[in-house]
Amino acid sequence: MSQHVRVVAIVVASAALLAAGCSTEVSGTARPEMGSSASGTSSRTLGELLLEPEAFPPRYQAVILPPQAVAQAAPDLTGIPPNAKVHPAGCKPSAQDYGPDGTAMVVGTDNADRSTLTVELIRATAPLAELEAQIAQCPEVTVTLNAVDSVVRTDLTRPPASVDADTTVALRRSVTSGRLGKTVIQSMRTLITQIDGVRIQVTHMSFGDVADPSALDAVFTAVVQKVRAG
User: Fold this and answer.
1) Domain 3-229 belongs in CATH node 3.40.1000
2) Domain spans of the chain?
3) Which segments in the chain show pLDDT lower than 70?
4) 220: helix, coil or strand?
């Protein structure tokens, strides 16, 4: 199953869990004003800092992923599963805590073309510059899982001028998988920043090269504002 199809499947399953009352809703408590201290952000759970599903553009039906789904969905955004082999060897992503204290995700799906828009919040232990340096050193990575190869290509790009963040990493990534005659290409555009130890990653994923920069920018700006508020 391709990463994109798996993400959509996880979203559908998560929506069913939400309908059955198996997830925890985000608290509606008041938030501090913009410019709050670092302690305000660090004292909030990642789930509380997530963008609400109703804040997504209307065409993206969004759900907050339950913890058991996060560990499946998050690695798809890198194109490199945790148990895969990679070449060059130094290009494997750093270990990530997929528990509720380490990672939280909300995913919106455009049912017209099955593209997804994902907000991922991570408790970061390393500076954003370290991630940017690894991306720059690994523009092309061959990934092997269960004797099947895929190729992940990643390019650093210029962040949009409209993005409301002090330091932002922007990237374009493609994951090419499958065999001759049955090649699948998944395209991702991602914006990343870090605020008080919380890494914010917003990714638009699609088949082919379908992009939605306006939705990506809008959701990224909205979640940056919410995390800043603490």
Assistant:
1) yes
2) 3-229
3) 1-42
4) helix
